[in-house]
Amino acid sequence: MSLFNKMLASVGIGSAKVDTKLESEIVSPGGELRGIVEIQGGNVEQRIEDIYLSLHTTYVKETDDKKYTVNGLIDRFQLAESLILKANEKKVIPFSFLLPADVPLTIGKTKVWISTGLDIKGAVDPTDKDYLRVVPNQLMDSVFQSLSGLGFRLREAECEQAPHRLRRRLPFIQEFEFVPISGPFRGRLDELEITFFPNSNGDLEVLMQVDRKVRGLGSLFSEALNMDEANIRFVLNQGDIPSMQGKLHSLIQNYS
């Protein structure tokens, strides 16, 4: 019977199971994620070589003028190495770690999840999947609130393959596309795109693309040559929060 159970466990029947329970699924970039991993032994004793959590999202990749969605690994965290799990034994492993500062926000089409895996030699590896709600940190939220105050509405947010000039640790970037529906830039801009590049010291580097509205024949030629777009790079810190709206207004004004 034991040999039969081992054969079943090798194909995932009666094998160990894993379940991750998060203290909270709401997190922010650079914030702490806490929880426990529950492992329930199956019908036979099994050796678990590795227990890990991996952080994932999806992003749009383009090849030969065709776009498709691929899985992107953001980070991987090892919880434990090599242990023996007896039949029907239950183990609980607490965890706590900081999310990377460049984890994308779960806005628009973007989803982020934690995948928990057990590496069991010679058997199907059990996994568990838990979605996170990644909300803006204080500095990012200040940017969003200020743009809203200037009359911009978020139209789209998506993770896309990063061009080589913008590639950092990850192969993708998250772009936020805004349109002016009221305020001083309505009728002057077509759209505004921003991308965040968090720094390790807590500062926030921002790439902003200002797309000016076409006016007259000269502007039509400029648009055809992409000369109607202006790219601005600047760095924000916590000290900018009280005057964020005025700072963004001045930057956009200079290029609109």
Can you describe this structure?
This protein is α+β, with helices and mostly antiparallel strands. The protein has 2 domains: 2-134, Immunoglobulin-like; 138-255, no CATH class. Helices cover 16% and strands 50% of the residues. It has 4 helices and 13 strands. The protein has helices at 2-10, 138-149, 216-224, 244-255; strands at 17-22, 26-27, 32-40, 46-63, 66-85, 90-98, 112-120, 127-134, 152-161, 172-180, 189-198, 204-212, 229-236. It has a 5-stranded mixed sheet, with no helix packed on it. Strands 9-10-11-12-13 form a 5-stranded antiparallel sheet, with helices on one face. Strand 7 and strand 8 (127-134) form a beta hairpin.
What is the number of domains? 2
Over the alpha carbons, how many angstroms does the gyration radius reach? 24 Å
Supply the CATH architecture of the largest domain.
Answer: Sandwich
Mean pLDDT: 84
The number of strands is 13
- Class based on secondary structure composition and strand pairing: alpha+beta
Main β sheet profile: 5 strands, mixed
Strand order of the largest sheet: 2-8-7-4-5
Residues in β-strands, percent: over 45%
Helix content: 10-25%
- Strand-and-helix sequence, N→C? HEEEEEEEEHEEEEHEH
Question: Any idea of the CATH topology of the largest domain?
Answer: Immunoglobulin-like
Task: Identify the overall geometry.
Answer: elongated
CATH class of the largest domain: Mainly Beta
Contiguous runs where pLDDT drops below 50 for at least 5 residues: 1-14, 216-226
- CA-CA gap between termini: 76 Å
Number of helices: 4
